[in-house]
Amino acid sequence: MRLIYFSFDYTPHDYRFLSSLAESGHEVFYVRLHRPTRDLEDRSLPPAVEQVRWEGEADTFRWQDLPQKIRAFRALWRRIKPQLVHAGPIQTCALIAALAGAQPLLTMSWGFDLMQDAERNAWWRWATRYTLRHSTFFVSDAEVTRRKAIAFGMRAERTLVFPWGVDLERFAPPARDRFPTEHYNLLCNRRWEPRYGVDVLVRAFVRLAREREDVSLLLLGSGSQAPLFHRLLREGGVWDRVHMPGHISQNELPSWYRRAHLFISPSHVDGSSVSLMEALACGLPVIVSDIPANREWVETGKNGWLFPDGDEEALYQTLRQALTTPPSRLSELGQAGRLTAESRADWRKNFATLLQAYELTLAYGKNG
Predict the structure, then answer these.
(1) Alpha carbon distances (Å) from 350 to 63, 234, 342, 356
(2) What is the domain range of residue 105?
(3) How distant, in Å, are the alpha carbons of 270, 308, 341 from that of 275?
(4) Helix (H, G, I), strand (E, B) or coil at 264
């Protein structure tokens, strides 16, 4: 199949989609909207994928440029003549494709576009509704986002859910059991932006580290809240208990999961979090915010703990509970997490659902 894959950025998620699409024999043209100074993914684009440079790619996305981007994408679509356009997030890439009249259009939610952006204001609500009503088919990684899409006008029968999943061979438990241990490493690799709630974890950790000397925080990544985190950790007197190595390559990432003892995701908004699935696959007990998408993966007492979203006190108390849990019980929670990943988060199996969505998109497209 000849298709356009239209995405905002070049991220590890895009790399996995493009790699698997190329391996499945499709003729893939990769189009991106944002031209950042540094890609979020350090692996090269798969050689079988053709990256298309176009007039709509820019350093920043501005709404006043939307007419120009629509014209540019329409010209691109007519030149490439794809059998299908795969686009997302909803209010940027998929909106441009829909306004350009590109059909058949498979719109893919990235989680935040429905769980947060869709409700920003009247314009964003209109953009969401217009895009979904002009999409041939829709896929998302969580049931909660599928229901939101339907509420915005997407036909229920033209939707599929598939968790994006992980490579279960790369993301696997360490050879030796983590527990018992004399020192606990807490891991969080969510971006340092307000929507991911990492500030809640930093504040809870400051309290925890003051009363326990056997705990450290592995805080991977970066973001706009870095000055805030640095100030909280220095003022809290626990700066030397936190490791902040910055951006971690995909090749290095599994080793960080394996050296950790607990994974924490305090995100305020999410679809099926790939970071969470990676942690489960690596056999880590997890502590995550009690939001709809996380409840699809985590059950307190089964493979980890849920805590009320944004509640610093609750997270602090949950961390204390986890660290006083018997080592044998922590091992059981980690093993249960691995089983969860094996049953539901296998990328190789889940990717087949996207190919099924492509076939359905073509079928509905032929039928109008």
Answers:
(1) 34, 43, 11, 10
(2) 2-165+347-366
(3) 11, 19, 12
(4) strand
User: Are 96 and 33 spatial neighbours (Cβ–Cβ below 8 Å)?
Assistant: yes
In this structure, what is the dihedral angle of CA atoms 134, 138, 143, 148, given to the nearest 10 degrees?
-10
Q: Is 314 helix (H, G, I), strand (E, B) or coil?
A: helix
Note whether 45 and 85 are same-domain residues.
yes
| Domain harbouring 23, CATH code | 3.40.50.2000
Q: In angstroms, rounded to a whole number, what is the distance separating the alpha carbons of residues 136 and 107?
A: 8
Confidence (pTM): 0.91
Interatomic CA distance for residues 301 and 367, integer angstroms: 48
Best CA proximity match to 30, nearest among 44, 64, 38: 44
pLDDT along the chain (368 residues), means of 10: 96 94 95 79 90 93 95 97 98 98 97 94 97 98 96 97 94 95 97 96 98 97 96 97 93 96 96 95 98 96 97 98 97 98 95 96 89
- What are the tens digits of pLDDT across the range 156-213? 999 999 999 999 999 999 999 999 999 999 999 999 999 999 999 999 999 999 999 9
DSSP state, 60? S
Q: How far is CA 291 from the centre of its chain?
A: 14
Note whether 62 and 210 are same-domain residues: no
Please state the φ and ψ torsions of residue 47, each to the nearest 5 degrees.
-60, -25
CA distance 174 to 72: 49
Helix axis angle, 312-323 relative to 198-211, nearest 10°? Answer: 50
φ, ψ for residue 139 (rounded to 5)? -130, 150
Instruction: Pinpoint the alpha helices (H) of the chain.
Output: 12-23, 66-80, 95-99, 112-115, 122-133, 143-151, 198-211, 226-235, 253-259, 274-281, 292-295, 312-323, 327-344, 347-366
Q: How many domains does the chain have?
A: 2
What 3-state DSSP class applies to 67? helix
Tokens (6 digits) for 164:
């994006």
Token pair of 26 as six digits: 């499709």
Kindly state whether residues 17 and 154 are assigned to the same domain.
Answer: yes
- Which residues touch 284 (CB under 8 Å, ≥6 apart)? 187, 257, 260, 261, 262, 263, 334, 337
